Amino acid sequence: MSPRNIKRDQLIREEKKQQILDSALNLGVRLGIGSTKISDIATESNLTQGHIYNFFESKHQLFMVLTEQLQHNYSNQLKEAANQPGTAKDKLLHLVRIFMDENNKIAEITLFLMQMQLSEMVTKDEKIDIVERSKENFNTVVSIVAEGQKTNLFRQGDTNELALEFYSMLSGFVLLRLRRTDIKVHLPEDHFVQTIVAAHLRL
C-alpha cells in the first residue's frame, strides 16, 4: 500500500472514531450515559456495532476516551480566552462568546461531565482524574479574575469564590438554555459580561 493510501486510510479511521465519539456525546446527554447502549451509538453513528468495537473495547472505554477528549478541548478553549489581548474583562467576554456559541456544545459537555463524575461505571480513580482536570480548567478562570483584581478592574476578595460565582452563573445559563428549549434568550455577549461583572466582580 502506498504512503498516500495509508494516510488516507488513517484519516478515514480517525473520522469514523470521531463520529462515534460525537454520537456518544449526543446520546449521553439525550438519554443519559447509563441508558445509552453500544447499539444506540452504532445507530446514531450510522455504523455497525462491529465498527464500534473496532475502536473501543467497551462502552466504558468509549466514554472515558470521550471524557478526556472533551476536557482537553475545553482546556484549550479556556486557555485561548486567558491568552487574549486586552483587559481581564475582555478575556471574560471572549470566554462568554465561547460558552454562548452553540457549535462549541459547552452545555452538552458540562452535562455529560457531570454525569461521568456521578456514574457508578466510573471507578474512584477515574473520577479523581476527571475532578483534577476540571480543577485545572477552573484555575484558568481563576487566573483571569486574579488579573482583574490586580488591575483593580474587579473587586478584592477571595479570588476562587469570585471566579466560582462567575463560572456558575455562566454555566447555569447555558445549561438552562439547553434544557428549556421553550426559552429563547438572545442576550448580547458584552451585555451578559456587564451584568455578571456588575453583580459579582465590580468594585
TrEMBL record:
* Example GO molecular function: DNA binding
Tell me which UniProt keywords the record has, alphabetically: DNA-binding
* Start-end of DNA-binding region: 37-56
List where this protein forms a coiled coil: none
Instruction: Give all residue intervals belonging to the HTH tetR-type domain.
Output: 14-74
Protein name, entry field? HTH tetR-type domain-containing protein
- According to its UniProt entry, this protein's organism is Cohnella abietis
